[in-house]
Amino acid sequence: MKAAILRSFNQPLSIEELPVPQPLPDEVVIRVHACGVCHSDLHLADADWDLLKRHTKLPLILGHEVTGVVDTVGEAVAELRRGDRVGVPWLHWTCGECEYCREGREVLCNKQSITGVTVDGGYAEFVKAKASHCVHVPDGLSSAEAAPLLCAGVTAYRGLKQAGLASGQRVTVYGVGGLGHLAIQIAKAKGAIVSAVDIREDKLELARECGADWAGTEKPERAHVAIVTSASAKAYEAALKGLRKGGTLAVVGMPAEPFAVSAVSVVAGEYRLLGSAVGTRQDLREILALAATGAVRCRHHVRRLDDVNAIFDEMRRGDVAARAVVEFPGRVDTLSARRQDP
């Protein structure tokens, strides 16, 4: 199979031929249709995050926004069959037994393994996954459109869900990129009044296209919830100032450097800072179901696996609008052909 491999940090990925993986009894092998190119992949390749760097296996096939069809089924797998269309998310496996898993917070499982970090991911024609942690992709979504929902979509969804965003409340989205444009649509689907903040006019125009009630560089009205999807420390400082008293700041985007928070301001305003990590399997089912109704649509453009290093360079420059998705020749489903964005 053809795969893009990270052999060392801060080096281009290598396009190589590898054997097709074989499943263990509880695993499936999936023929990849599409894989979203997440900014986390770039951070991993560039060794920006010390916490994850020490857990990242090398050599590694990156990619954790994977959609495709089940090709081979392990002998102990009962929940999936050959030909099922599924998604493979960030959470490759969780134990189901620790206190966090029992509390329904499997994203905090201390024993978890991570697709495209601790195990090989979807920048390849085939990927191996735990059957228990794959999710079915609804018929109403193309593989390319569904792929980014497995990380960008579910991350934005869980952040707003954890923040307790309610209909009629004001929410401000800081950073209108792959996560931000989805957060706008999710918040609108929840009945919120949505504002978007970015420094680039093309991103603000995207926010308006996605349904934002207001878009600009400075938020004029304080929000009940601010969600930062940008990897910018300055965005967090602006977001905290943009909250109403008692508001919630959802920490989703991950800048490499710390951001400043005034303890006096947090106490005086009774602000709540909420960290939110990716999403559970239930969160995944919910965002995919919402997207299948048409309320949320990932803006994406399709590329080839051979383009992955060029995509990374474009991401470093901030030139990727919304989401880049790698598709594999001969693997494009009919929905993707009909619905992909220009």
Can you walk me through this structure?
With 342 residues, the chain is an alpha/beta fold. The protein folds into two domains: 2-151 and 279-339, Medium-chain alcohol dehydrogenases, catalytic domain (Quinone Oxidoreductase, Chain A, domain 1); 153-275, NAD(P)-binding Rossmann-like Domain (Rossmann fold, 3-Layer(aba) Sandwich). It has twelve helices and 18 strands. Residues 334-342 have low confidence and may be disordered.
Proportion of residues in extended strands: 25-35%
Largest sheet: 7 strands, mixed
Overall CATH class of the largest domain: Alpha Beta
Give the strand tally. Answer: 18
Topology diagram in text:
Elements: E1 2-6, E2 14-17, E3 27-37, H1 39-45, H2 50-53, E4 60-61, E5 66-73, E6 85-88, E7 91-93, H3 99-102, E8 113-114, E9 126-130, E10 135-136, H4 143-146, H5 152-163, E11 170-174, H6 180-189, E12 193-197, H7 201-209, E13 214-216, E14 223-228, H8 233-241, E15 243-251, H9 263-269, E16 272-275, H10 281-292, E17 300-303, H11 308-317, E18 323-327, H12 334-339
Parallel strand pairs: 11-12, 11-14, 12-13, 14-15, 15-16, 17-18
Antiparallel strand pairs: 1-2, 1-4, 3-5, 3-9, 3-18, 5-6, 6-10, 7-8
Helix pairs in contact: 5-6, 5-10
